[in-house]
Design a protein that fits this description.
- By secondary structure, the protein is an alpha/beta fold.
- The protein folds into 2 domains: about 35-135 and about 275-300, Response regulator (Rossmann fold); about 135-270, Response regulator (Rossmann fold, 3-Layer(aba) Sandwich).
- Helix content is about 45%, strand content about 20%.
- The chain has helices spanning about 1-20, 45-60, 75-90, 105-115, 135-150, 170-185, 200-210, 225-235, 250-255, 275-285, and strands at about 35-40, 65-75, 95, 115-120, 130-135, 155-160, 190-195, 220, 245, 265, 270, 295-300, 300-305.
- A 6-stranded parallel β-sheet has the order 2-1-3-4-5-12, with helices on both faces. It has a 5-stranded parallel β-sheet with strand order 7-6-8-9-10, sandwiched between helices.
- The longest helix is centred in the N-terminal third of the chain and has 20 residues, at about 1-20.
């Protein structure tokens, strides 16, 4: 019995010595802090705008390991400014903003001055230090002018549906269109009308235009939704003089109309709302300390009945 007791004592002492010599367990690493990113988008009055919020939120969800986000939608500049303040209070380190209205320059500049990274999507505003991801709005106008001239020649009457309330988007598309027509088809007559980026306004305004203009050869529309309304007005008026209508955005419904209208060329300058994913990625890269260009411009692609099948996407929300 004494031998057993001695052996037990030796074993216990040995295990205590081994335990003392064993390396201490490494402390559990704390989870890495996530970047706080706010998303500011207009309220859904347009399918393209709805898709912007959809793609921005989806991208943030894809980056869930590194990004914590809040998304707000607003109906005017005042509401968006309030939401911007809420994001700053929340502690947003970066904000991806789609400031569709005038008056957002001051609050965005104030956020930048506080050290917050702001990446504007689509809209160009006068704020120092703001980053931007956008399609090439001016080139959309340039390509629209070239497309119309290619289809109807260098003379005729073109109705330009501009949207002054959209700020730099309409201004740049108009400038590209007007400047290019003046260069390649100086004898073309251009009649300008103000409308909005909705099919309801496109229908209403185009109906008035058709009544007051007995001969129209082409319509330079800046947006697919507007164009769908305008096409409905043209059909209801039984007009056969119009040979071309442009658009912009990349709407699936509009793509599907292209082969159905063989008497009129329907064109869209692809301007995908999925570009907002690039804006979210830019914000994350900046927060990581990576060097990025302050402006990223995505080239224009034209879609019509000759190539529309390449751009059909059954999963697209727009």
């Amino acid at each position: 019995m004494k031998k057993v007791s001695v052996l037990m004592a030796v074993l216990i002492m040995a295990s205590m010595i081994l335990a003392a010599c064993a390396p201490a367990a490494a402390p559990t690493a704390a989870p890495a802090a996530k970047y706080k990113i706010g998303i500011l988008a207009p309220a859904v009055t347009h399918g393209w705008v709805a898709a912007v919020a959809y793609h921005a939120e989806n991208r943030c969800k894809e980056l869930a390991d590194t990004v914590e986000y809040k998304l707000y939608t607003s109906s005017n500049a005042e509401e968006m400014t309030t939401q911007l303040d809420d994001l700053l209070t929340w502690g947003a380190q970066a904000i991806v903003a789609f400031p569709q209205w005038q008056g957002m320059e001051v609050p965005i500049q104030a956020a930048i001055d506080k050290g917050v990274t702001v990446v504007n999507f689509d809209i160009e505003i006068a704020a120092n230090g703001v980053y931007r991801v956008s399609g090439d709005n001016k080139d959309m106008g340039i390509q629209g002018a070239k497309y119309i001239v290619d289809k109807i020649g260098k003379t005729g009457t073109v109705v330009m549906l501009e949207v002054p309330t959209s700020g730099s988007v309409s201004e740049l598309r108009k400038a590209g269109f007007v400047e290019t027509l003046a260069e390649i088809a100086p004898d073309m007559t251009v009649i300008s009308y103000a409308t909005k980026f909705t099919r309801e306004d496109g229908l209403k305004d185009m109906a008035d235009i058709l009544t007051s203009n007995p001969q129209i050869d082409a319509v330079y529309s800046m947006d697919d939704e507007t164009s769908i309304g305008a096409l409905q007005a043209i059909k209801e008026a039984n007009r056969t003089d119009i040979k071309v209508i442009t658009g912009g955005g990349g709407m699936q419904e509009y793509f599907k109309m292209m082969p159905e209208n063989t008497d009129i060329w329907i064109e869209s300058a692809l301007y995908s709302p999925a570009m907002v994913k690039d804006a979210v990625d830019m914000a994350v890269a900046i927060l990581k300390g990576e060097k990025v260009d302050p402006v990223k411009i995505i080239p224009t692609t034209l879609v019509d009945r000759d190539n529309y099948t390449q751009f059909l996407d059954p999963n697209s929300p727009y």
